[in-house]
Amino acid sequence: MIAIALLFFVTTFVLAYYMSYEMQYRTYDGLEKLNVRATINLLGQILSDSVES
To answer: Quick one: CA torsion of 17, 20, 22, 24, rounded to 10 degrees?
Structure first.
């Protein structure tokens, strides 16, 4: 009975840790994509401004 309870708590802890890691990874991945897109837009704007001049 103790082994089953221990297995339950360990499994719950591992799943909670994995879900936390996955959420953090998705957050940083989304921020990276957002920053890359913003940089591309900024460089495109700089390029179009320099072509117009």
So the answer is: -140
Q: What is the DSSP string of 9-42?
A: HHHHHHHHHHHHHHHHHHHHHHHHHHHHHHHHHH
Average pLDDT over residues 28-52: 93
The mean pLDDT value for 25-48 works out to: 96
What are 4-34's pLDDT values in tens digits?
Answer: 999 999 999 999 999 999 999 999 999 999 9
Instruction: For the chain, give the number of residues.
Output: 53
Chain Cα centroid distance, residue 28: 3
Report residue 32 CA to chain centroid gap.
Answer: 8
